[in-house]
Amino acid sequence: MVQGASGGGWSSKVEEGVIVGGLLVVQCILAGYVVFVDHVLSLGANPLSLIVLGAVASSLFFLPFAVVLERKKWPSKISRTLMAQFVFIALGGTTVFQELMLLGIKKTTPAIASAMPNLSPGLIFIIAACFRLEKFDKGCKYTRAKILGTLVCLVGAMAMSFLQSPVSSSPQLTTTSYYDWILGCFYLFLAVVVLSIYTVLQAATLVSFPAPLTMCSVTSMMGAVFTAILQFIVDGKIDMGSPRIDETIISTIVLMGGGVVGGCVVFQTWCIGKRGPLLVSIFGPVQTVCSALLSALLFSQLLCLGSLAGMVLMFCGLYIVLWAKSKEGHSIIHLEGGDVEKALLS
């Protein structure tokens, strides 16, 4: 009995170490990918082409896992409601969200772009409460804490956007680029709003279609098709947008965007199943710090004190929201026999 308990305890410690260490590595990888994308955009790459390449690669990466692990969960018939949900998730999560993020990265820095998604837990709470997918009780201290955390996050995001000097962060920019900087931050904020909306939609969809890998694979491919159609309408052709984007860069986009980043998403999904979405969300700021360090080392992009103060406020707000979520286990709302809120912070 003692040996079994000791073995179980050791196994638990190993699993905990794998989860924590793995999540740290995942955030560093995602930060590196954001910095890489920023470099590719600076070479003149068309953001829409990057979305198409990454989405196709991601879909092809997820598909084998979906077939092996989730084939028995596939419905015999796809309803119109489910198809509509897939279309909206594809448009929001692939085309609109990624286009806004890439435009934001192009006009700001990878560090700012990595920090903005930390707003999503608070915005998800607001959106989910509006659709009555999450309990909203003004008299509950945890609800008030989530509201406070969301407000602190928003103040931090505004401070980070308006107090950062484009000239100090990117020496090649002039003072006239300040409005472009604000526009880029606005793009990033809209991207996070879209992210929050389609995350809530994903959570609702998973209630009737409990196959997340399949959903990711299908919606990524649909999003790639939608994005390619949009690029053809806007540009009249589908290409990378610059002769400087050679086969090596394209191969790196496919490998990183589909294989490596896809693997990170799969690992995070596994961690969510083991420890829940809150633990995964806590590691979000690590990506911001890594992006800032990589940008400073590789491209001399620095953050001013005002922007750093905004990031600290945003992180404080994030952890207030996550603390309230962790204490509010009784408020989880079930819809049609499924747990809608379980995936809201994933």
Automatic annotation (TrEMBL):
GO molecular function: transmembrane transporter activity
Transmembrane portions of the chain: 18-36, 48-69, 81-105, 111-133, 145-163, 178-201, 213-234, 249-271, 278-299, 305-324
Main location: membrane
Coiled-coil stretches noted in the UniProt entry, renumbered to this chain: none
Places the protein is found: Membrane
Keyword Zinc: no
GO cellular component: membrane
Superkingdom of source: Eukaryota
Family membership noted in the UniProt record: Belongs to the drug/metabolite transporter (DMT) superfamily. Plant drug/metabolite exporter (P-DME) (TC 2.A.7.4) family.
Protein name: WAT1-related protein
